[in-house]
Amino acid sequence: MDNKKVLIAGGSGFIGQKLTSLLIDRGYDVSTLTRKPKHRKDIFWNPITREINLSQLSEIDVLVNLVGENIGLGRWTKKRKKELVDSRVDSTTFLCEIAEKMPKLSYFICASAINCYGKESDKIHIESDDFGSNFLSQLIKSWENASDTLASKIPVAKLRIPIVLSENDGALVRIKKITNFGLGAPLGSGKQTMPWIHIADLCRLFAFAIDKKLVGSYNANAGLDSNKDFMKSVALSMKRPFFLPAVPSFLLKLFLGEQACIVLEGIKVSNEKIRAAGFTFQDTTLSSALKKT
Ligand SMILES: NC(=O)c1ccc[n+]([C@@H]2O[C@H](COP(=O)([O-])OP(=O)(O)OC[C@H]3O[C@@H](n4cnc5c(N)ncnc54)[C@H](OP(=O)(O)O)[C@@H]3O)[C@@H](O)[C@H]2O)c1
């Protein structure tokens, strides 16, 4: 029997490359949908000009959507915000239109983000809670709604991803650079709650969802720690000092602008739904996850 064929839009990125390796190890036949094909299994598309060769997609069984301009890069000017939204919502809308013309497609899974619930309070959020009203929450709402246009045709899942811990990419690499100079410190109050997941667990979670054909939204956090505990654990794991006072919120806002909310605003979320579906996280404490980074 032929291996199941998976197409990963945005498969060239940080999560996509790791997910590709894991799915290949598990016997899937994986291709990447990219604007800059470099490898044999890369397929060209351009969601802005709506270019794609449909004949290359006729055998695909599973579509994974990891597309999006990096939220953490560049100041959030009006233009940058539009790029962040369009690169997710417009590309997802285009993907769903294409998906309808893919005869064998039986499953669609899309990255989403944990910042969808708005401002942190004492409440521990579950997936059925409302979206928040800030920029990121509304972006995520439009992004998830765009992927749900396929939900009447095939099972559709959205993984609400928190900060992803990995040794060679993502936000942790930037945090480690600062910590390495002895400059690790809490950000803002340090009390804000940071949901996180190790990259290996995230890739296992995508594979689990594909195997089980999970439907709906899932919080994808393995752990929840305060920003202070997080920054301290990183310093400890690197055997670097952690004695500086917290970096004041106003300074972060001055340097980062509105984007400072990524580090200054936390959120409490439950991962009960994905665990009840049968998924087990391998790294549920920062110390075990950071040992692998
Ligand atoms: N990493 C995290 O901590 C995290 C947390 C929460 C949510 N997420 C979400 O998970 C997804 C994958 O994250 P990642 O960290 O792997 O991202 P990444 O490394 O930045 O990769 C994203 C991929 O999307 C494609 N892309 C970027 N801008 C695009 C545009 N304007 N039009 C079309 N394609 C574009 C690129 O592929 P090509 O250049 O090959 O076309 C790129 O490789 C993103 O949607 C992200 O928002 C990530």
Compact overview of the structure:
With 293 residues, this protein is α/β, with parallel strands linked by helices. 36% of the residues lie in helices and 18% in strands.
Commentary on this structure:
This protein has one domain: Rossmann fold (3-Layer(aba) Sandwich). The two termini are 37 Å apart. The chain has an 8-stranded mixed β-sheet with strand order 4-3-2-1-5-6-7-10, sandwiched between helices. Strands 8-9-11 form a 3-stranded mixed β-sheet. Helix 1 links the parallel strand 1 and strand 2. It has 293 residues and is of the alpha/beta class. The site of NADP nicotinamide-adenine-dinucleotide phosphate has 25 residues, from helix 1, helix 2, strand 6 and strand 8.
Terminal CA distance reads 37 Å
Strand order of the largest sheet: 4-3-2-1-5-6-7-10
- Identify the bound ligands: NADP nicotinamide-adenine-dinucleotide phosphate
Task: Say what the CATH topology is.
Answer: Rossmann fold
Coarse shape? globular
Largest sheet: 8 strands, mixed
Uncertain runs are none
| Second-tier CATH architecture | 3-Layer(aba) Sandwich
Gyration radius, rounded: 19 Å
Domain module tally = 1
- Helix-strand makeup class: alpha/beta
| CATH H-level superfamily title | NAD(P)-binding Rossmann-like Domain
Regarding CATH, which class?
Alpha Beta
Mean pLDDT: 95
Number of β-strand runs: 11
Number of H/I helices: 10
User: How would you spell out the order of helices and strands?
Assistant: EHEEEEHEHEEHEHEEHHHHH
Q: Strand portion, in percent?
A: 15-25%
Helix percentage range: 25-40%
